[in-house]
Amino acid sequence: MTCAEFQRDLPEIFEGGGSLAHEDHLRTCHICSDLVSDLRYIAEQAKLLVPMEDPSPKVWEGITKSLEREGLVKPAPARRGLLAPQRASWGLLLSIAGLLLFAIGFLFFHENAESISGQSSVAMQPAPADASGANADDEQVLQQVEQRDPGLRTTYETNLHNVNAYIADARQSLAEDPDSVEARGYLMQAMEQKAMLYEMATRSGR
Amino acid sequence: MRMADRVVMRVVGKQNSAFSMKTVLVVLPFLLTIAASAQTRKTFTYQLPPGGSVVIENQSGPVTVRSSGGRQVVVNATLHSDKVEIEPDQTSNRVQLRTHLLQQRLAGDDARVDYEVSVPADVSLSIRSVNGPILVERSLSDINIEGDTASVDVHDVSNGHVHVRTLSGPIKLANVSNGHVEIASVSGPVDLRRVSGPSVEVNTTNGKITFEGDCAGDGNYVMTSHNGDIDVTLPATASVDIRARSLKGNVQNDFPFKPKQHSAPQATAGRAYAGTSNSGGSSLQLRSFSGTIRVKKL
To answer: Which residues of B touch A176 (CB under 8 A)?
Structure first.
C-alpha cells in the first residue's frame, strides 16, 4: 500500500479502525505513522473539552463546505451522522476542525513531496487563500469573535495574521526542501497553532 | 478662590456653578457607596474527595486559586454588575463555576466577576478566562488553563500535568517540579523559572520564550517558535544534552558546553549548536524558524 492510498483511506481509518493492510503500512511508514499520531492527538484533545452549546448553523455550514471542498467528505447526506448539527457535540466539531487543519497541511506537504494521483490532487486542493494566507474560514471565525466581543476581533485578527505567516514560511521552506523533516515539523507546529486559535475563538462564544 | 476649588471646577467643567471642594467631599462618599452597592459578593462552599476537580469559566476579572488544607473548596466571588451571574454546579467529585453573561457583548466591569478560590491541593483545576488574569499557586495536581488575552501565572506546583494555552496573554510559570508541562501561545511571552519534569514543551508563534533553570529530572525539554526569540539561562550544574537550531535566525551560545563533533544538526554556522554539559541527563531542544536563540550561563 502506498502513502497516497493510505491517506485516501484516512477518514475510514479514523471511523472504523482500518484494515490489516493499513496497519501493515503504519508499521513500516514513519511519515504516515507520525501523521496518524498527530491526528489522534488533536482528536483526543478536542474530545476532552467540556460539553458545550452547539455553534451557530453558519459555523456548521462553513465546516461542512470546507470538508467537502477538501474532499474529506462527500456532499450532503452521505455522512449524516457525522455532520448533523443537532446530534453532534462541540468536541466532535473541533475534532473535525482539527483533522481538517492537519489534513490541509499534510496534503499540501505531499503535493510537494510526492506525486499523488491526478484525481486525488484535484479533490484535495487547500482552501483558497489570499496573499496574507487568510481564507474564508478565517473571516468566518473573526466574525464569530466580533459578534461575541467586538474588542477581541483585532486581537484575533493580528494573531491569525501571525499564524498564517508562520504557515506560509513553513510551506515555503518545505517547498524548497520537500524531504526536510524539520520543515515538516514547523508546518505541523504552525497548523497546531492555527487549530488552537480556531478552537479558542469558537470556544469563547458562550 | 482656592487652588483646590479651581481644580475641581476645571475637572467638572462648571466654572459658574457653586461647586466647591466641600461639595465634593460631601457627595463623594455617597457616590462611592452607590458604586460599591453595584458589587455583589457571594461565597460557595463544597466538599471534594481526593481526585476531584474544580472548573471555573470566567469572562473578565481575576481568577485566583490557592490550595489549602482540608477537603473544602471555598469560592469567594465578587460580581461587579447585575448583568452577570454565576452558575454553580456540583457532582460527586466535580465543582463547576461558570460566569454567565445576561446580555451579549458585555465588556469591562459589566462582565466582571472576581474569583478567589481555595481548594484542596490534590484536586485538578480547569480554568478558563477571556481576559481576566489567572493565578494558581501551591497545587499538587493537574492544571489546565486557557486564556485569550488573560495573563497566566502558575507557581509552586508539582507532580501534575500543567497545560496552559493563551492567544496573546503572557504566561509565567515558576517553581514547577516533576511536572508534565505543555505551554502554547500564539503571541504571548512565555517565562519559565525553575520549571522541571519529565516533559516540558513550549510552542509559540511570535511570543518570546524565556527559560531559566537547571532542566532537572532527565526530562525532555522542547521549545519551539516561529519568530519569537528563545532565551535560555542554565546554571553550571545543569546536566543537559542541547540541540539548538534557528532555520533562518541565529543561535548564540555562551554556555560552556562540550560541543558535539558528529551529531550537530546540519546548519549554516551560527544557526545551530549541539553540545552537552555534565552527564547530559536531560534533552534540551530549542527550535526557532527565524527567531534568535540565546543560551547563557547563570
So the answer is: none
CA distances from B96 to A13, B53, B120 (A): 36, 8, 15
Shortest alpha-carbon distance between residue A16 and chain B (Å): 30
pLDDT tier at A12 (50, 70, 90 boundaries)? confident
B9-18, B32-41, B121-130, B177-186: least confidently modelled range: B9-18
Across the beta sheet with B251-253, the strand order is B40-47, B72-79, B113-120, B63-68, B134-137, B152-158, B171-177, B190-195, B209-212, B230-234, B293-297, B251-253
CA-based angle A72:A76:A80, to the nearest 5? Answer: 85
- Chain B interface includes A79 (CB < 8 A): no
Taking CB atoms and an 8 Å limit, are B149 and A186 in contact across chains? no
Provide the whole-model pTM.
0.70
Are B48 and B123 in contact, with CB atoms under 8 Å apart?
yes
Question: Is residue A177's pLDDT more than 60?
Answer: yes
> What is the structure's pLDDT at A67?
62
B146 touches chain A (CB under 8 A): yes
